[in-house]
Amino acid sequence: MIMYILRRIASAISVIVVTIIASFCLFYLAPTDPAGVVCGPRCTPARYEEIARSMHLDEPILTQIGGYLQGLVVGRTYTSGGITIECSAPCLGYSYQLGQPVTKLLGNALPVTISIVFGSAIAYVLVGLMAGTFAARRRGTLLDRGLVAGTLTIGSVPYFVVALVASLYIPLYIRIIPDAQWTPITDNPIKWFSGLLLPWMILGIVNSASYTRYSRASMIESLSEDYVRTARAKGISERRVVYKHGMRAALTPIATIFGLDVAFALTGAIFTESIFGLPGLGLVTLRAFNQYDLPVLMGGVLIGVVVLVLMNLLVDLLYTVLDPRVRLV
Amino acid sequence: MSEMWGDAVDASTISTGGAPAAPVPAQARGPHTITRGERVRGGDQSGDAPYLEVSNLTVAFPTADGIVRAVQDLSYNLRLGQTLAVVGESGSGKSVSSMAIMGLHDPKSTRMRGSIRLGGREIVGMPQDELRHQRGRVAAMIFQDPQSSLHPFFTIGKQITEAYLTHNNVSTRAARKRAVDMLGLVGIPNAARRLDDYPHQFSGGMRQRVMIAMALVNDPKLLIADEPTTALDVTVQAQILDLIQDLQRDFGSAVLFITHDLGVVAEIADDVLVMYAGRAVEHGTVKDILGSPLHPYTWGLLESIPAVSGDPTRLHPIPGTPPSLLNLPAGCSFHPRCEFRKRVPDDLCKTELPDLAPRTDDPARLSRCHLANPDHVFADDILPRLP
């Protein structure tokens, strides 16, 4: 088990390094000019060169990648206009646009995304499981068909359309739900909660539709298993048959999808954050992308990779808990 | 009557739940001893009252394609201590009828008529909640494939104690002790240590022993074994059959044994009921059914057993396939596959369903066939072809 985790971490590190190199190369292969953007319209060649040098843009790409990796592991120093700045590990560099350390920028954005993602995830996985189980037990009835049709309708409309419409109409008709707004939980937990209610609801509605379908399919399968019939033959209550014996078996596939969904959402709930102007990872990286802000963009990519790799590992470890037949070697 | 059975069950379960042994006959078997309270033991002592009475049972499932008539007009009795084997191909209704005894059919999608009296209580039409309290306590069931019938995510200890705790108000500890005793009884070595193992950590035969332990944990008076040896190796099959027989002798329960294997029938059954397309076609003692069967379908079953010794000859399978239960043939359901229907005048087999009639010389032998002298046909035509 420990050997397995060590091996997975080793492979995770190699994945991360390869991703860094690949995104660096992609950025430089694209016709970008970060120094030009920073220099502005009234730029002199001398000023341009100075800015490019302070950004290490004059160095060969391999040296730049090396410098970046070095900053990650042991930290690095920057010189700009005769001033030397110490950037301690893990150093993700400085934003070209905002002049702030990337770690600080992303550190501010991360709690926003985490709040949005986990808050909605708890809601949609619970709603989806319940609704899916409800439908599975009434398979083929009008209620079941209506529920499936409803989830398919929600699922087939593009997410941003649902989100836009809902963000317009929910506050209009349900007055108690305030507009979305970010307040750190440490400042005011009540404001944090009420400000995120709307994005949670919208992400919840959209995702619980698909989770209802997953759960329904998974429950239908597990409820038709022989061991569920055995459980019934023992004389235990129908509720226990469904929620203990049936759901226990149905959870494994749902947990897999859930882990990967959450991991992906953590890399940035771009639509949600943009629609509501919530300063999360998605919004920060999107802005960096538009402004050739390489260090911030790289930081966003890095967080995304780490989260994806970690969640994958977590899901695999979760298997051993969920299914006693699975052993990791 | 029902109160009497209820009391008997309670007395027995209390005495086995770790409390001091009851004063009445304690039976020991092997190194593990289980004591039981007073109970009726063996069919011979229980008088003539059958424990299970199925009369005119009809089970049908309405589907989009029509009504599936899985069991029609089925009647039989089973006394305590007795083993009845129900034999037939897949789709003959043997499993459906046994599930009906357990009350396992969803009332919303099943139409049941007739009567199933179990220990004096009527099962057909019993409310679900009451039915649930019968299941696993009065009647328990062993299923075909122990690999898929045990929940892969729960330890066997959890699964057995759950069955016990459902019907007995005892502590988890007492239930675990009971589970260990039961596992010892069915021949699982190191039962106490294996209690927290998962089903996949057992071999197929051991898993079936676990299933049997779980079924018998509440001391049921009727054990339904639905092809319990089909998924097992031949050597393991024999062990499981021996185990079921031993336990039946000790527990004095009635056993309904569902199988398609006539070799198994010879070994375990007192009586045999042959089913075809949802109906009983022949009913009698094991000696009669295997020694001088009266129905062409039973002949076909006997003929399709491969010979172990003697000259290798071709097998004689029954021609054709079992009919669809959605669309049963008119007259005798077996007539399209029967090689003797020409011997019945007026094509009666095609037009009229024969009754399940007793023989004049032996009212306990029932057969559903138009043939006038089936024992002669058997002796002249079938017997020489049997291995």
Concise account of the structure shown:
Helix content of chain A is 73%, strand content 3%. Chain A has 329 residues and is mainly alpha-helical.
Note down, in words, how this protein is organized.
The complex is a heterodimer of chains A (329) and B (387). Chain A has 329 residues and is mainly alpha-helical. Chain A has two domains: 2-87, no CATH class; 102-322, MetI-like fold. In chain A, 73% of the residues lie in helices and 3% in strands. Chain A has 13 helices and two strands. A two-stranded antiparallel ribbon of chain A has the order 1-2. In chain A, a hairpin with a 2-residue loop joins strand 1 and strand 2 (83-87). In chain B, strand 1 (27-29) and strand 2 (32-34) form a beta hairpin. Chain B is globular. Chain B has 387 residues and is of the alpha/beta class. Chain B has an eight-stranded mixed sheet with strand order 8-9-10-5-11-12-14-13, sandwiched between helices. Chain B has 14 helices and 14 strands. Chain B has a domain at 52-274: P-loop containing nucleotide triphosphate hydrolases (Rossmann fold). Chain A binds chain B through residues 225-227, 229-238, 245, 248-249, 322-325, and chain B through 102, 104, 128, 132-137, 140-141, 143, 145, 148-154, 162-163, 166-167, 198, 200, 211, 214.
Which labels suit this protein?
heterodimer; A: 329 residues; mainly alpha; MetI-like fold; 2 domains; two-stranded antiparallel ribbon; 13 helices; 3% strand; B: 387 residues; alpha/beta; Rossmann fold; 8-stranded mixed beta sheet; 4-stranded antiparallel beta sheet; 34% helix; globular; disordered N terminus
**Overall pLDDT of chain B:** 84
Largest sheet geometry of chain B: 8 strands, mixed
**Tertiary shape of chain A:** globular
CATH architecture level-2 label of the domain at 52-274 in chain B: 3-Layer(aba) Sandwich
* CATH homologous superfamily caption of the domain at 52-274 in chain B: P-loop containing nucleotide triphosphate hydrolases
Q: Could you give a short account of the major beta sheet of chain A?
A: 2 strands, antiparallel
CATH architecture group name of the largest domain in chain A: Orthogonal Bundle
Number of discrete helical segments of chain B: 14
The radius of gyration over CA of chain B amounts to: 22 Å
Q: Tell me the total number of β-strands of chain B.
A: 14
Strand order within the widest sheet of chain A? 1-2
